[in-house]
Amino acid sequence: MSSPENLQERANALRLYGLLAHWPDLTDAGWVAPLLQWEEDERARRSLERRIRDAHLGSFKPLCDFDWAWPTRCDRATVEELMSLEFVRDTANVVLIGPNGVGKSTLALNLAYQALVNGHTALFTTAGQMLGELAALDS
């Protein structure tokens, strides 16, 4: 069971100032903890939906369906290490280079999705899209 102090901290983190203004009247109310949990869950859900929409991922093949036998020089261990998102914590960049059709976009989309699910933001773009946008800014 959550302590009243913990519940008050959660309400403050959610910026429920109207609720906090009447906190002394609510300390024994059994509905406060479920209410806060619902609000936290709903905000987390909407945040993830917003990040996914803003990332421009579109539809993509999940990594579990990726054909590891096709790109013969794709290092699965490196991809799995990238999926741990350690590079995000190290503020490093990842650049996927290779010929057409070997799965660069699939890997990039899965990395972006993994980052989004873990609370980060991401934006999927291709080199062609990025160069086109840069050229449009230059003119």
Give an overview of the whole structure:
This protein has 139 residues and is an all-alpha fold. It has 2 domains: 4-46, no CATH class; 63-138, no CATH class. The protein has helices at 4-13, 17-21, 23-26, 32-54, 76-82, 86-89, 104-117, 127-138. It starts with a helix and ends with a helix. 9% of the residues are buried. The mean pLDDT is 90.
List the helices and strands and how they pair.
Blueprint lengths: L3 H10 L3 H5 L1 H4 L5 H23 L21 H7 L3 H4 L14 H14 L9 H12 L1
What class, by secondary structure content?
A: mainly alpha
Number of domains: 2
Helix content: 55-70%
The total of helices stands at 8
- Overall pLDDT score: 90
Which spans of ≥5 residues are poorly predicted at pLDDT below 50? none
Strand content: under 5%
- Terminal Cα span: 61 Å
DSSP strand count: 0
